[in-house]
Hints:
Layout lengths: L2 H33 L3 H28 L8 H16 L10 H27 L7 H11 L1
Helix pairs in contact: 1-2, 1-4, 2-3, 3-4
Amino acid sequence: MTKEKKEQLLNRLVLNFGILLIGAFLMLYVNGLLRGSYSKLTYTIILVLGILGAVSAVLLFVLGKKKNLKLKNYSAVGIGVFVAAIILYISKFNLFSFYSKSFAVALVYILMLVYFIILAVYTKIMTSKPLVKDSAALKKNKKKRK
């Protein structure tokens, strides 16, 4: 692993933490709206955001693959918005006695925490690999293995 790749992984971890922190603050707001008197409007907004999240995830992933850009790395944000919207929107129907609005919000928080822990463990494992001086030496090692 090169020093640049290690720095890139650490930067991705910090960026994801920032995105999750913003998402956590937004979930506080959503929780207040769901408990308030505007819950019908809130569910409509959640549905629209879920659809936008799914569309943006697909677009970012396809454009990232097609044009070989780093956009596909940001498709996870759209997937996260889509999953959170589904979890929150299901609470509207009262399918299960335990699945309330508060439970749905708590479940989204737990999933955000699990995602960050998995990403932090992955980053730790990847960054604990020994450093290589430059990328040319790394390419030579890959060619020798083949």
